[in-house]
Amino acid sequence: MTTETARWAYLFEHPGADPARDRLVLESGGQRSLVVAVASTADAPDVAAGLVRDERVTLVELCGGFGSGDVAAVAAAVGDRAAVGHVVFGADQIPAAAAYASAAAAAATATAGVRPGHPPSG
Description:
Elements: E1 6-13, E2 23-28, E3 31-38, H1 44-55, E4 59-62, H2 68-78, E5 83-86, H3 94-110
Parallel strand pairs: 1-3, 1-4, 4-5
Antiparallel strand pairs: 2-3
């Protein structure tokens, strides 16, 4: 008797990420979990479809930073081949999530154009 490994992926946005390289794979207890960074939420549909096709993922979970339109685009990209979930913030966590989003945007702006290992221009 053979049992299929459960395959799950969590996608989150990280500026400059390469989803082929910027990922963590955990495998144990009959489950394979992939945590995958995407450079932009706009990249998520193609990345999710690739994970479903190439890694046989059957559940794609999206970070709370993804909007409802992003979730719909990922769901359309994977069709009925995988379930799509979306982390959401409780109402009491919205101010903290907004503060995080502002800090992340400020950090991205401050480092725009800076490549790893290269000093900022100017």
